[in-house]
Specification:
It is built from eight helices and two strands, in the order H-H-H-H-H-H-E-E-H-H. It is mostly helical.
């Protein structure tokens, strides 16, 4: 059943999530205030999404609409302070994908985020970092088949994604 109130709250929370992230200047250290705000936004959003999932299950397209379903994924993607929760969201998002309630690329991004948090190589090449002053993708499992895996979940070839990431963050 469609829930307009939940849709609106998810969209509001995603907007706040994105506002705090875009307030940070690329390549600059976060101010103490912005770092605290960022942490508070993520902590609040994670607690909120945990409650939604416990009460209603994963908020897919039928429940909240496409944009708010994407917003739920954004909140899970940014729940880095609770890696166990992120890992627990993987099967929920996968089931949502299988039911047409989420996109395969959302699941791929979340899988990569969980892999990186667990110190493993990512599968789809979506996660980047700056290490020793060099910007690039975090380690990738079986890089020779990367574009094949990316295509399977609707992601652009890695070279295109890499170019976009470098334009944004270098």
């Amino acid at each position: 059943m469609f829930d307009a109130e939940l849709r609106d709250e998810l969209l509001r929370r995603m907007e706040r999530d994105q506002a705090v992230r875009t307030a940070a200047l690329i390549g600059e250290s976060l101010s103490r205030e912005l770092d605290q705000e960022w942490d508070a936004v993520d902590t609040g959003n994670t607690a909120f999404l945990k409650g939604v999932i416990a009460e209603r299950g994963w908020p897919g397209r039928d429940m909240v609409g496409e944009e708010a379903a994407h917003a739920a994924w954004v909140l899970a993607q940014h729940a880095d302070q609770d890696p166990e929760f992120q890992r627990g969201c993987l099967p929920l998002v996968k089931s949502a994908v299988d039911a047409g309630q989420a996109t395969p690329s959302e699941w791929a991004y979340l899988l990569d985020r969980v892999c990186v948090a667990e110190g493993r190589s990512q599968v789809y090449g979506t996660q980047y970092w700056t290490r020793n002053g060099v910007f690039g993708p975090r380690p990738i499992e079986d890089p020779d088949r990367l574009d094949e895996r990316r295509a399977e979940v609707g992601l652009a070839p890695q070279a295109d994604y890499d170019r976009t990431m470098r334009e944004l963050y270098e």
